[in-house]
Amino acid sequence: MLIVGGGVGLAPLRSLFLTLVHDIERYNGITVCFGARSPEDLIYKEQLKEWS
To answer: Do 20 and 27 contact (CB within 8 A), yes or no?
Structure first.
């Protein structure tokens, strides 16, 4: 499963990710690609570290 989001676009994808992670074997892994103008603009910084 590939999830792509940028800046605040990651906010609605967070709930999708949290739902998918409970059944991760079904999706053969999850890849999240995200970006922002600068590191300061990233949301969920701590959670992104936990998810990796």
So the answer is: yes
Residues β-bridged to residue 2: 31
Q: CB under 8 Å, gap of 24 or more: what pairs does 21-30 form?
A: 21/51, 27/1, 28/1, 29/1, 30/1, 30/2, 30/3
pLDDT tens for 21-42 read 888 888 888 888 888 888 888 8
Residue environment code for 18-31, b if the CB has 16+ CB neighbours within 10 A, otherwise e: eeeeeeeeeeeeee
Give residue 2's identity as a one-letter amino acid code: L
Q: What is the pTM of this model?
A: 0.61
Number of domains comprising the chain:
1
